[in-house]
Fold:
Amino acid sequence: MSTFKTAELPDLTPDSRRMIDSAAARYSIGMVYLGRQVLPYALAQFQKAQELDPTDSLAQIQAGRVALRLERPSEALALVRKVIAREPRNVGALTIAGLASMRQNASAEAVTFLQQAAALEPRNEEVRQALSKALLQSPNQ
Structure:
């Protein structure tokens, strides 16, 4: 598909361009790319949504998830740290931060993030599994 792509978006009218250049529209486009497993394009759309609205936590968390899947844990951690700074009880951001920390071999930091997430949502299976793994990797536990 990318070999045929000549522009980020098709030709649009000025009104259509304004509708597309919103954080919500870019997030939706990113979700379509994510659903199709076109991760670099999904990440680009989530990053564009974040540029358009720096407080868009959903876009930042999804960008973090995609960055993690693309083996870019430091980028993922940087993205979700912004969310955690605004929303310290955001389980999605804490989970991605924990997973990204594990990938960077910062297991103590991973445990801290994941324990916070587990305290907020003790039945969240993704968090529980990640915490178990982080505890096994952590030399302090």
About this structure: The chain has one domain: 14-137. The longest helix spans residues 39-52.
